[in-house]
Amino acid sequence: DGVAVLPAPQNISVQSTNMKHVLTWSPVMVPEEIVYYSVEYQGEYESLYMSHIWIPSNWCSPTTGLECDITDDITATVPYNLRVRATLGSQTSAWSTLKHPFNRNSTTLIPPGMEVTKDGFHLVIKLEDLGPQFEFFVAYWRREPGAKEHVKVVRPGGIPMHLETMEPGATYCVKARTFVKAIGRYSAFSQAECVKVQGESLPL
Amino acid sequence: GQEFQFGPCRVEGIVLQELWEAFWDMKDVVQAQDNITNVRLLRKEVLQNVSEAESCYLIHSLLKFYLNTIFKNYREKAVKFRILRSFSTLANNFVVIMSKLQPSQENEMFPISENARRRFLLFQREFKQLDREVALTKAFGEMDILLTWMETFYQ
User: Fold this and answer.
1) Looking at residue B1, what is its pLDDT?
2) Major place of localization (chain B) (predicted)?
3) Which CATH architecture has domain B4-151?
4) What is the least distance, in Å, from the CA of A48 to any CA of chain B?
């Protein structure tokens, strides 16, 4: 009667980097057949008050792929249960549930990509666009003994931002890190990038 | 980053925009079910001129009621109206807020907490005077009023 004949998907796991969460699993092998997969989730509230109710993932119910972008499904900083099952025609597998609930506060935050340029004497930075969840802390300084470090908060990324009007002949350095409000965490700082301004440096 | 500051109660980690987007996704479906337009549960007397000090007590009572009564009993409707995604986003973010609210229990705060309780009881009494299903539908549809009030404490 088409119930749980297929083996359930195995090796379910979540890879999460910079608040982009991807659920992956191993394929259910059926020679010369296309197997479909369905993903469902439940947040802490559902598992507490309505544990029988699971919500179909926005993008992957169903899918033929072996991964599912669940970023749009995870919309609160609470533990989420996730499960996957296989379907082939009228045959469906049992559900495989992620061993440990996933919380977005465990995402890996990596330093942002950035482009540091000169527009004449203007120091300009363009940060990677990581989406609305991200703010950027940009630190910049003139490379000289005892230089003071300045910090600017930039939101959002993807737009060139003027940092400083530079002195001729001087070298300026910039580094940046991200802050994610929803989980209250920072990334590490990026490598510093430096630019040198043409012209004679002014006497101090 | 922005956070909620309900008087002494500070709540981080909530992106209010996510809550608004979840409500807007279901607003038409939910509010279309509410035919009693001359009654409002979250009336002015409940939410207007709430002092900072009162706000932590009031939001705690309101969210507790929403989670334990309104969401809990609205879930079949959420399945029926296919709004489980929005329902889940709001419910789980309310769980986060609740987990971070610690209203002070000190005696000297009693007059303030009592004020907040009176406001909440106004809301609850209005809720209980309506038919159960009607009250659930109206309260669920009034979450934009609740979010608008909460936004005044988001800084």
Assistant:
1) 61
2) secreted
3) Up-down Bundle (1.20)
4) 10
